[in-house]
Amino acid sequence: MTTATSRHSERRISPVFAGILAVTAVTGWATWTGFAQQPGVAVFLFVTAAWIVSLCLHEYAHARTALHSGDISVGAKGYLTLNPLKYTHALLSIVLPVIFVIMGGIGLPGGAVFIERGRIQGRWKHSLISAAGPLTNVLFAVVCTAPFWLDALDGVPSDFRFALAFLALLQVTAALLNFLPVPGLDGYGVIEPWLSYGIRRQVEPFAPFGLLFVFALLWLPAVNGVFFDVVDSLLKSLGISDFETYCGQELYRFWQGSNEFCSAAP
């Protein structure tokens, strides 16, 4: 029998997540104040920690929506604690996305939490569960870009502005990739409940390879160019320039040495 105490513990915020949140706050402060002797290291830790926070919130959104839709098993699995170590695919959800940020500056969609779909009735609920994750990235992107489109960055140190711009870039790429209607991604999960049984059976074998297919396409210069043109257009409409995202990524990759072009920025 499940007790009230155990149900409460299933929803208590994990110390692991609290620690990551603390790293985000401390390194954000260090980037803002210039306290760190090596600003690139502070930017790296700030953006990486904030990115992990967004990944945890992405998975939490899936689980929380599933809970309210009828899958009460998500609590016992630890999904409501925001602990990245509790997710079904910690490698896909946390480690690989961070590696892709370091290597290419792309917000890789994470792995999904395991939802017991048989407990959930109604196509709209299934669609909303799939949409909840990338909508969290959209919300995170709005928060990151708000200081830019609200013109609230007067006097803000350039390093912090660049870091925030790069973090916004990651959130926008994650949202766009997640919403693609490709098997294995959340975008397909949104439309899947509305497809016929026959189509779903035909598509199902391709789901494990959907993400690999997308990233194979992104290696093609023409496709990559179109994708980042869309990303840049969205960021520009939100007040973030190519220069700011470029310098943010250059600061993030501190091991490559300082960029005099960005260092001279006001």
Automatic annotation (TrEMBL):
InterPro entries to which the protein is assigned, alphabetical: Metallopeptidase_M50B, Rip2-like
Its localization reads: Cell membrane
Which species expresses this protein natively? Answer: Streptomyces azureus
GO molecular function annotation = metal ion binding; metallopeptidase activity
Annotated TM spans = 16-35, 42-61, 90-115, 127-150, 162-185, 206-228
Q: Does the keyword RNA-binding apply?
A: no
Instruction: Write down the membrane topology.
Output: Multi-pass membrane protein
Arranged from A to Z, the UniProt key words for this protein are: Cell membrane, Hydrolase, Membrane, Metal-binding, Metalloprotease, Protease, Transmembrane, Transmembrane helix, Zinc
UniProt-recorded name of the protein: Membrane protein
According to its UniProt record, which cofactors does this protein need? Zn(2+)
Does the record bear Phosphoprotein in its keywords?
no
Family classification: Belongs to the peptidase M50B family.
What's in the GO CC field?
A: plasma membrane
Q: Name one GO biological process term.
A: proteolysis
Protein origin, superkingdom: Bacteria
